[in-house]
Amino acid sequence: MSELGNTALPDRRRPEPLWHQAETAMRELIANGTWTDGMQLPNEARLSGLLGVSRITVRHALRNMEESGLLRREHGRGTFVRSSRVIAGVRGLTSFTQEMAGLGLKVGSRLLDLCEEAASPEAATALEIREGEPVVKLRRLRLGNEAPIGLQTAYLPAARVPGLLALHQPSASLYETLKRDFSITPREAREVYRVGTACAEDAALLGIEPGSPAFVVERITCDALGPFEFVHSIMRGDRYEIRSRLHL
């Protein structure tokens, strides 16, 4: 079997640029486990031969993957697959499932809690409802390539999602369920990031030591009618990073 397995190789007869085809092929090798976390990639000359493209084309693809957080280059050593991370920063309004797919990672979730409860003062303020009104609480352990990345607790006004407790499947994208069954389509979101630490309970679920660095993220998502989701997340500091590109 080839070092690249059954991955489709770049083909000059296809309309996509060769660098894009090469990048797609290498992303697939990470996603399907052929290239594992921490593994050193073949050098540019070897990749050029394996993919059937020039070294300049390979270099372009590798640079894009490094910028997106999939690879790391170490001077004098080579290029390595990074431990799976979520890269946050300037991006479109996406779900966790879409973010994982965009990074070439296998998305996964473990349902921890799905229930209806009274809105806390914090959730009520975020969702612009009265304190004590019923909200649906959805708490999940989010996974990338089967390893924990973060804990997310979402609150949604029960009045806007009647029957969600019975309809939503743990493995499904929440946004897809909201769009399909409740005609709720995200329009904008506001996020706040803080640096914190993981408590003992959260650390046990995340597979890290209590007190380990973590990002605390709060997100309010709106559609045409206003806020429909308030999410509180604890993201592993070693698997979640924020990147920004600044311009004058």
From TrEMBL:
Q: Does the keyword Signal apply?
A: no
Q: Name one Pfam family in it.
A: UTRA
Q: Where is the HTH gntR-type domain?
A: 16-84
| Protein name in UniProt | UTRA domain-containing protein
Cross-referenced Gene3D superfamilies: Chorismate lyase-like, Winged helix-like DNA-binding domain superfamily/Winged helix DNA-binding domain
GO-annotated biological processes: negative regulation of DNA-templated transcription
Record-level Gene Ontology MF annotations: DNA binding; DNA-binding transcription factor activity
Which keywords has UniProt assigned to this entry? DNA-binding, Transcription, Transcription regulation
Q: Domain of life of the organism in this record?
A: Bacteria
Q: Which InterPro entries match?
A: Bact_HTH_transcr_reg, Chorismate_lyase_/UTRA_dom_sf, Tscrpt_reg_HTH_GntR, UTRA, WH-like_DNA-bd_sf, WH_DNA-bd_sf
- Which species expresses this protein natively? Nitratireductor arenosus
SMART domains the record matches: HTH_GNTR (SM00345), UTRA (SM00866)
